[in-house]
Amino acid sequence: MIPPAAPARAVDAPSFSTSRFRAEREADWIAFDLLLTKLEKKGAKALASDELLQLPLLYRATLSSLSIARATSLDKALLDHLEALSIRGYFLVYGVRESRWNRLRRFFLYDWPAAVRSVWKETLVISLIILLGALTSYSLVSSNPEWYFNFVDEEMSGGRDPRATAEFLQTTLGHGKAAAEKDESGLHVFATYLFTHNSQVSILSFALGFAFGIPTMMLEYYQGIGLGAMMAVFSAKGLGFDFGGWLFIHGTTELFAAALSGAAGLRIGTAVVFPGARGRLQAAAQAGRTAGKVMVGVILMLFAAGLLEGFGRQLITDTMLRYAIGTLMLLFWLGYYYIPRREDVT
Amino acid sequence: MTAAAANAKQRAAKAKKIRQFVTPEGVDLELRIASAGLRFGALLVDMILIQLALLLFWLLMQWIGFASRSDVTEVVWMLGAFLLRTFWFIGFELGSRAATPGKRLMGIRVVARDGGRLTADAVVARNLIRELELFLPLMMLGAGAAGDMVSGWTMLAGLLWALTLSLFLLFNRDRMRMGDLIAGTWVVMAERAKLDADIATDAAGTAMTFTETELAVYGIFELQELERVLRGRDPRAMREVADAIRAKIGRPVAEEDDVFLLSYYRQLKARLERKLLFGKRREDKYASD
């Protein structure tokens, strides 16, 4: 049968019209929008089970609407809305796979030690650089104390230089009468200051890594220099052992953290210089992610070091005890990082 | 430059900011890279918010410290300030919207460059580098101002070097900062667009009919400009546009502007969409019909 002749104004009633398309699908988009808003505001727990089942369906419906609209519709507002909704939906549907608690647990149990383990070569290199710096300045200052003033700032040293007397030096280590009289109320302030300062330095040494790792190595070398110069001053007065204890109690943690932050920076630097089979950008991105994990660990380590330095060192004045605590901390970190564990292979 | 070339150039510039981003369903989301201006604006907003939060926090701590007469507040203050500064960006970007308040305001968000999920380590890496980008130029300036041994030229060289790092995003077409580069991320547009009413179904749009030749003068660009004017509902703009169209197609002023424009819009849209279904996309009035 022949249908009745189409009206002259065919424009108004084409068999496919974008208005009809919109009218048919609009409800889905609105439902998806509401669901996403709920998800963003209250998290996945707030969704009822049928809403959770609806989510991927509505997401796919919206994406398919976007494809159709792009091919057929010229309504800018509609296209913009669908595009924004799809982007928002994509990142919510594909973005969250794990709860925060699980993430945190995995970080402490596996990710953090694994990341540290994977930069072991860089850690070794940086440790050697720090050692080299310390040895350089130690030998220079031992042979000629004048060198000391090239290495250590007057303000930083606080009178701890080759001209100081052995008694004065001893008080700075927390021994003798003068130290006991010093009031201890400022300890926690001091600890906090040390923590924030050290964190910023190690963030810097990590962040400088992308310049082929060279500024990182320089910074770490400089850290070693300061250390060695101090050491030389104290051992010249026969206080080397005590100074070692003073340093050791927090130094094992702090220097380890410093070495790790340098290693993280160096990892990025080497990835940029020697990307291997990957593209340079991709190599940098991969190295950056490993280094990022290491850096969170470094900040936590520095927090521990700050506590040890601010409280432990000021309250515990026995040198042997200081050595014991320092060694224990070192063993703890080494065990935590380098003892292999089963769940590694994931 | 002719108007046609200018239009084409504008379209090309827009296309240059679009990056292919294919979902597992096979749809290209066509993410748009956020401009440097928006990024800077977002940073500025965040910095102001951080400073405000610090100020409030400081006042609170002062007040508590005054009341309790202990220096624990000083510790809390120092720790709090450090945590706020370092983890403001990380904390917000780890959230489901992957954007700090500043970024939300500007309608942008962080996205993993490879299309995967934005991981926590990437967010941490990109934000720890920020520390360097923000403070290295300041430090260079500070070092130059404090030490006499540093000559002006050395300071200038240092500052320039630091600035090339900080302004790295201006020198690449993906607008990646140093941190984005290291973390493998991008910052893209993520504004929300409200679903506006379908003006083509407006009843006023059936009042007039236009002939094929009257509709053939415009393309998609003009259609969407007309849509913008219609949605804006500014009577002066509508009058101007209506007069321009009337002059172009040679119609006398006989109807209300909005009735005229709505009818024209509706029929032009229907015509262009019909052509679109047949695979003919007429970008603007300069393109052949």
| 3D shape of chain B | elongated
- Count of strand segments of chain B: 4
Number of helices of chain B: 11
User: What is the largest interface, and how many residues per chain?
Assistant: A-B, 82 and 70 residues
Shape label of chain A:
elongated
Which structural category fits the helices and strands of chain A? Answer: mainly alpha
Over all CA atoms, what is the radius of gyration of chain B? 27 Å
What report would you give on this structure?
The complex is a heterodimer of chains A (about 350) and B (about 290). Chain A is mainly alpha-helical and about 350 residues long. Chain A is built from 14 helices and no strands. The model of chain A is unreliable at about 1-10 and about 175-185 (pLDDT under 50). Helices cover about 60% and strands about 5% of the residues of chain B. Chain B has helices spanning about 5-15, 35-70, 70-95, 100-105, 120-145, 150-165, 180-185, 210-215, 220-230, 235-250, 255-275; strands at about 20, 30, 110, 185-190. In chain B, the strands form two sheets. Chain B has a two-stranded antiparallel ribbon with strand order 1-2. A two-stranded antiparallel ribbon of chain B has the order 3-4.
List the helices and strands and how they pair.
The complex is a heterodimer of chains A (346) and B (289).
Chain A: H1 18-42, H2 49-72, H3 76-95, H4 100-118, H5 120-143, H6 148-151, H7 154-157, H8 166-172, H9 176-181, H10 187-207, H11 214-236, H12 240-273, H13 280-315, H14 319-338
Helix pairs in contact in A: 1-2, 1-3, 2-3, 4-13, 5-11, 5-12, 10-11, 10-12, 10-13, 11-12, 12-13, 12-14
Chain B: H1 3-16, E1 18-19, E2 31-32, H2 36-68, H3 72-94, H4 101-106, E3 108-112, H5 120-146, H6 152-166, H7 178-183, E4 185-189, H8 212-215, H9 220-232, H10 235-249, H11 257-277
Antiparallel strand pairs in B: 1-2, 3-4
Helix pairs in contact in B: 2-3, 3-5, 5-6, 9-11, 10-11
